[in-house]
Write a structure and sequence with these properties.
Length: about 110
């Protein structure tokens, strides 16, 4: 069993610089086969995750609160509470909180079998 309490997890910066966006990691690489991370993130208004790709993993997002705008490859997207998104390996992606309120989401990454 793995039990983690949110208030006991130390927040860390996301790995895409430059960043002031923090995350709480619940599951780290090698704890569950094929899962490289499970985390929550809060993005303040105007926070942005720069365009990037992952060569060997899927990245999934579930919006808990607020909205998030982004671009997956050449497709603009708008995510709202309870929306789910899965970005496939090699798909470029970027996100920005264009709203006036905090956006909260859970995300997880999984190694591709390609």
């Amino acid at each position: 069993m793995i039990l983690k309490k949110h208030d006991e997890i130390v927040s860390t910066l996301i790995s895409h610089p430059p960043s002031t966006i923090h995350k709480h990691v619940y599951i780290e690489k090698n704890h569950i086969p094929h899962i490289t991370q499970i985390a929550t993130t809060e993005m303040k208004p105007k926070d942005c995750v720069p365009t990037h790709t992952h060569s060997d993993m899927y990245e999934c997002f579930y919006i808990l609160e607020g909205t998030l705008d982004g671009k997956i490859a050449e497709t603009a997207i708008h995510l709202e509470k309870n929306d789910f998104l899965c970005v496939e390996p090699l798909e470029s992606h970027t996100f920005i909180n264009t709203s006036l309120t905090m956006t909260k989401f859970i995300y997880w990454t999984s190694v591709s079998n390609h």
